[in-house]
Design brief:
- With 635 residues, the chain is mainly β.
- The chain folds into four domains: 34 residues, no CATH class; 78 residues, Immunoglobulin-like; 83 residues, Immunoglobulin-like (Sandwich); 421 residues, Methylamine Dehydrogenase, Chain H (7 Propeller).
- The protein has four helices and 49 strands.
- Strands 17, 18, 19, 21, 22 and 23 form a six-stranded antiparallel sheet that branches. Strands 4-14-12-7-8 form a five-stranded mixed sheet, with no helix packed on it. Strands 24-48-47-46-45 form a five-stranded antiparallel sheet, with no helix packed on it.
- Strand 1 and strand 2 form a beta hairpin.
- The N and C termini lie far apart (83 Å).
- The N terminus and C terminus are likely disordered.
Length: 635
């Protein structure tokens, strides 16, 4: 029933019809018209592609769809069914077409991509002088990438970037270019199995102030060829001085990307995400290597725009909501999981009372892991205080565990955690957030993995960093590599510490252990003995795609000068292939990545300077024994 005094909501008049004649009182009348909205309102597609349209707000029967006002459309403009399915013609119309219905409606627009006549893309500068923003319209459901290089042969490429919903302007950030250099770049679209090329564009990168550039040199020996890719470096900014600390370089040491982190922070560390963004722990410089307090996790794009952050207050609010501990700081590492979650490494102090052998009131700093769901916050936690015993404290209780690396084991959905101050690497029952957190195995002196008698205790891990699984599988019988710093390495069955009178000096090494999780036994299958180098902190090691090994001697106290880091690539037979020397900054991590884009591998030659030539590096002096087995011989 209609109440002409206003008791019936006006919106009700608008439902169920396009026009209603209303009469009230003295016979006056008024027509209310409700145009249907055609959705999507605009699309950009290729010839022959089909798009489904809907008429929102229309509830009449026998709707008649039109293309450019013609019911059912036409061969030249495209056809549309009685249910709103529009199919573009085989040849792109010269103009956009209009999709509507017979009756009051707001039309939608369809633009059809013409590969022979389309507007070129555009290239613009960003806030990072080494990064360009390349934009071009891309049809719905398609993608594009940009090829770039020093000339029109290009050679380097970004990842594929999908079109926005409905098609339209898409942008990729082009990075991987040296400062003060002109590059050519061109968008490539895949349309119906054929490549469609944009015109060639040029972009000249800006400069980097010389006083911000890291002091680094690189050398090659002529032995083999360095593995493809670039170096991604997390550098200590030298006690508050502000040279760049978050950089990627080519293998000639040219900075080809950087993030200008504020002087109060250093990257602890930085990693490339599968989506092409970078994730880093911005750690306060004043915190020092132990991790300190605070910091934040940042997701940035290649131009340096901050996209997402997780702060300690944010984290602790979520932890409080689930009744968990309160974190003091993010530190040393994080892991990005395949499901989009992050495993965050944090620490927090506990005051210990009523524990035998420990004075009441002793404050102990321990580590914890948090599974962070970007939508829900913390969904799973794990703490060393719940799973380890205070009786195992090789370096004392003050900084009891000092974890420094996390990796995900996809085969059994477990987590592997390196704890420097425990001299242990442990595998944790995670099961993608439903595991009970129990420790599945403990690798290190005093753990539950047994090492062959002739290899213990000297081969055990001491103050280790950055474990990686180098076997195809991550459970069962696995191969585990890491940088073994060698802090207080036990040298014989009498547990005499290295550098004690009458025993060899302490040294670092890069071993590969074959671990049998079923029998809980391990053997050394390959090892690079780095003596006389002895890096007392930091560092990493990884297997490269060409079969070589790369490692970062981050803080040597024997051979290298102070505040000096040294990164090497060597063959399986331990011949030096390439090295990078960094002076004035400690390389917390420095490792090879294929490129700045997921799925892209950048050849070394295409990144190098034209006509580049450098003298060969001298081979590293070493007292290492012959390797037990080459990486290529691993089972």
């Amino acid at each position: 029933m209609l109440d002409c005094r206003g008791g019936f909501a006006f919106a009700t008049l608008m439902i169920g019809c396009s026009a209603i004649l209303v009469s009230c009182g003295g016979g006056s009348s008024q027509t209310f018209i409700t145009p249907a909205l055609i959705t999507p309102s605009s699309v950009f597609i290729v010839a022959g592609q089909t798009v489904q349209f809907s008429a929102v707000g229309y509830s009449g029967q026998n709707v008649v769809w039109t293309v450019n006002g013609t019911a059912g459309g036409s061969p030249s403009a495209g056809t549309i069914t009685s249910t709103g399915a529009y199919t573009a013609p085989g040849t792109a119309p010269g103009q956009p077409v209009s999709i509507s219905i017979q009756g009051p409606s707001v039309a939608a627009t369809v633009s059809v991509f013409d590969p022979n006549h389309f507007g070129p893309g555009s290239v613009a500068a960003t806030q990072n002088p080494l990064v360009a923003a390349y934009s071009i319209p891309v049809p719905q459901n398609l993608s594009f990438h940009v090829q770039f290089g020093l000339d029109t042969s290009y050679g380097l490429s970004t990842s594929d970037i999908p079109a926005p919903a409905g098609g339209g302007a898409a942008t990729v950030l082009v990075a991987g270019m040296r400062a003060g250099t002109t590059y050519h770049m061109q968008a490539v679209l895949e349309v119906n199995g054929s490549q469609v090329l944009d015109t060639d564009h040029t972009f000249t990168t800006g400069s980097i102030p010389a006083d911000l550039l890291p002091n680094m040199t690189t050398q090659t020996t002529g032995v083999g060829t360095p593995s493809p890719g670039i170096e991604l470096l997390s550098l200590d900014p030298d006690d508050g001085i502000t040279p760049l600390s978050t950089v990627a370089t080519d293998l000639d040491g040219n900075v080809i990307w950087y993030y200008s982190l504020e002087s109060a922070y250093w990257p602890y560390p930085i990693k490339l995400l599968p989506n092409g963004h970078m994730l880093l722990n911005a750690s306060p410089v004043t915190s020092g290597p132990s991790g300190g307090s605070g910091g934040e996790i940042r997701e940035i794009d290649l131009a340096g725009n901050i996209l997402n952050t997780i702060t300690i207050p944010q984290l602790n609010a979520g932890l409080a909501a689930i009744g968990s501990f309160q974190a003091e700081a993010f530190h040393h590492d994080f892991a990005a999981l395949p499901n989009g979650h992050l495993i965050l490494l944090v620490n927090y102090p506990e005051t210990i009372n009523n524990v035998a052998g420990i004075p009441n009131g002793t404050v102990v700093l321990g580590d914890a892991l948090v599974d962070w769901d970007p939508q829900r916050g913390p969904v799973w936690t794990w703490s060393t205080f719940d799973h380890l015993n205070f009786s195992h404290a090789p370096y004392g209780l003050a900084d009891w565990t000092h974890a420094n690396a996390i990796i995900y084991s996809p085969d059994d959905e477990a987590l592997i955690l390196s704890m420097r101050n425990q001299n242990w690497i442990v595998k944790i029952n995670y099961q993608n957030g439903v595991g009970d957190g129990s420790i599945l195995w403990t690798f290190g002196d005093g753990g539950n993995i047994t090492l062959a008698g002739q290899e213990a205790p000297v081969e055990w891990n001491y103050g280790q960093h950055y474990p990686t699984i180098v076997s195809p599988n991550s459970s069962g019988v696995i191969d585990l590599m890491f940088f073994n710093n060698g802090n207080n390495r036990l040298m014989n069955s009498d547990n005499v510490i290295c550098s004690s009178p009458g025993v060899p000096d302490c040294y670092s090494s890069v071993p590969v252990f074959q671990i049998n999780e079923l029998t809980q036994t391990a053997t050394v299958s390959w090892e690079a003995d780095l003596a006389p180098y002895y890096s007392i902190c930091c560092g990493d090691a990884l297997a490269l795609p060409n079969g070589n090994t790369e490692f970062d001697i981050a803080y040597d106290i024997v051979v290298l000068p102070s505040n000096f880091s040294h990164i090497e690539e060597m063959t399986p037979s331990q011949e030096l292939v390439w090295k990078m020397d960094i002076q004035g900054q400690l390389a917390y991590r420095g490792f090879r990545i294929p490129s700045l884009y997921s799925g892209q591998v950048w050849p070394v030659a295409l990144l190098s300077s034209p006509n580049h030539s450098k003298p060969p590096a001298a081979s590293r002096a070493t007292t290492s024994a012959p390797s037990r087995k080459s990486l290529g011989q691993l089972p």
